[in-house]
Amino acid sequence: DFGRSSELAFVVEPSDDIAVQEQPLILYCQVEGIQPITITWRKNGVMIVDSENAFMLANGSLYVSRFQRVRGDGSSDEGEYDCMAQNHYGLLVSRKAKIQAATMSDFHIHPQNAVVEEGGVARFQCQIHGLPEPVILWHKNSMPVNTDNERYTLLPKGVLQITGLRAEDSGIFHCVATNIANVKFSREARLTVSGSHSTVYKDPMILVGPENLTLTVHQTAVLECIATGNPRPIVSWSRLDGRPIGVEGIQVLGTGNLMISDLTVQHSGIYVCAANKPGTRVRRTAQGSLVVQAPAEFVQHPQSISRPVGTTAIFTCVAQGEPPPQITWLRNGQILETSDHIKLKNNNSTLSIYGINQADEAIYQCLAENSAGSTQASARLTVLWADGLPSPPQGVRAETVSATTIQVSWEKPLQNTKEIIGYVLHIRKAADPVEMEYQEAVSKSTFQQLVTDLEPSTSYSFYIKAYTSRGASKASEVTVVSTLGEVPAMPSLFIKVINSTTVQATWEPSIKLGQHEGFKLYYRKVHLSQYTGPVLLASNVTAYNITHLDASVVYEVKLLAYNQHGDGNSTVRFVSLRETVERTVLNPPCDCMKDEQNNKTSTTGIIIGIHIGITCIIFCILFLMFGYRGRLLMCKNVQEQLSTPQIPRSQRSATGLVLNGATRRDRDDRDLNGKQLDMNELERLFPASPSQEQQEKGIMSAHSLSASHDETQISTLPLDEFSIIEEQPDPLPKNPHGSSPAALAPDHGPANEG
């Protein structure tokens, strides 16, 4: 590698151009590099032979004496031109230059007559196609329009806008289109300004909105927007995606046209023009898209490299543009074709050349092209070859050891063996591409290598290189051998009991099984030696039902996978159906139809049962409440037996009548004295101790809110529950004040609340 200055490279490449009919055309091409360098030209891929019309100058440029769009023989000087440069190291092709003839068509849109009221907006338009893009100017009454007038706006695409119309704006207008090919005039149109400025309110209205534009970076975009209304609407711009438009390179032409200078890819988007009525939210909108394209350019150029024979060379070429460019590789000016040792990756951005040899030494070019333009970059591959390198290793042999192992052996080279520092064994599946190859290093005294972890029933290719400190030998002859076949691995087996006579065997497919043709299923009663089977199942089957089994014995189920190399190891499971039978006896199956009929007829019974249950709960609650009252009265009766003298049975009967009392109406008929008498009688029958009085107070307070229920409780307590023990009456203790025990008892109110 002699350095960058020695590389064959273009200093000047031909560029796109527009040629004038019958005028000379020069396409430039200048190259540097190690001489001698030969330059030739092509048009549309065909070599150009020097002639009177087109020939190459001494500096390598192409000269066309009289450019013609169409010649007498039907040929044309239009097309794509490129120059090729070649020296001892290779051939280089320039970018393609697109040459077109300058033209101008007739106007396909002419200005139209218009009548507009004073203060309004007038718009004239004319359109014409041409190469290069024609420059359009406007004339009024045969004189150029005064562009210094702020009310007059001329847009690049042939549009004239006049705002705030006045009477002096009336006149005859036409446009003039000019380029290097021709000059043309449009038809005339009359503008009439009528009446005076109207004060009638008019909603905002956009007369003309922005068009969809596709331009290239660094060009200028003009988005038109002209609106009318009374009062005059305010025109504003925004992007539909919400991003700010920015201020750099942004200018407003006239009353609302948006001009963006020095376009970049970031300016692409949808632009919205809005016409707002001043002081309100009344608005009208129109939108147009702007697409900015960028010619292809390189982010990373390929670099020239030098590599020893047998190694790998990699070139990287990264390009950007809008739209994204397509990348093509050339080798010495010809389209590069991929092969086993030449691969393109990453959308052609990476070129890899494996096991390079002298024939791969060349100039490699990366061409990046999109609709906005193209570019090229080149790099040279130098293949290093040192004198005195070893000759290729001899007698390479490969022998199959097992399904996953192959032993490779070889003999040392015939020449230049003293400097050998080791060998490298290159291994690859025969069906894989070259880039999938891998290597294993071996010491210089070893002439065999055991290659393990291979795949069964697979072909592999092997070759050897001898290495010295100055480089590698050429590759030995390639030998191909296949590994042995292998029986499949054990499948996983699961047994599920379906019923008393059927089980289901299921297994899971797995890549660990390896290559297999199918499965074999066996089963037997454990006390027998003979299996039923094999049942042959396809490789995609994962379940099988075994039927007509005897529920009283245990079964053995065996499953294995097989292929052309034999049967694999089997998986064995044992299963018993006895538990299923026992569960069936203990839990006989239901008669669903009968149950359904029973369900239909039992609805009424369920409802009746619910009512009966609720009624029972209510009676239980009442019973508990009444029983509590009864236990209270029983306690008082027992205390009377233990602490007071007994009274005659006739008096007890009378007392019982008082306790069981009469009805509410009888008690209501009594006077106050009668009630006090009943109370005194109760106190006499049941004298209370201080602790008992507190209990009675608690009971009375707890039941004071349900006096009517207490009456029912007292009236329903049977007198037979009170047992009285006959004893000799003891004299009652006398009160110091001579009062009776009843007088010491607190007043508990009516008897029914006691």
UniProtKB/TrEMBL annotation:
Domain Fibronectin type-III: 392-486, 487-583
Source organism superkingdom: Eukaryota
Positions with biased composition (Polar residues): 644-654
Ranges annotated as spanning the membrane: 606-626
Keywords recorded for this protein, A-Z: Disulfide bond, Glycoprotein, Immunoglobulin domain, Membrane, Repeat, Signal, Transmembrane, Transmembrane helix
GO CC list: membrane
Cellular compartment(s): Membrane
UniProt-annotated stretches for the region Disordered: 644-754
GO biological process, one term: cell-cell adhesion
Gene3D superfamilies: Immunoglobulins
Primary location: membrane
Pfam families on file: fn3, I-set, Ig_3
Domain Ig-like positions: 8-100, 105-192, 204-287, 295-382
Compositional bias of kind Basic and acidic residues: 663-673
Membrane topology type: Single-pass membrane protein
Protein name: Immunoglobulin superfamily DCC subclass member 3
Source species: Pomatorhinus ruficollis
Gene giving rise to this polypeptide: Igdcc3
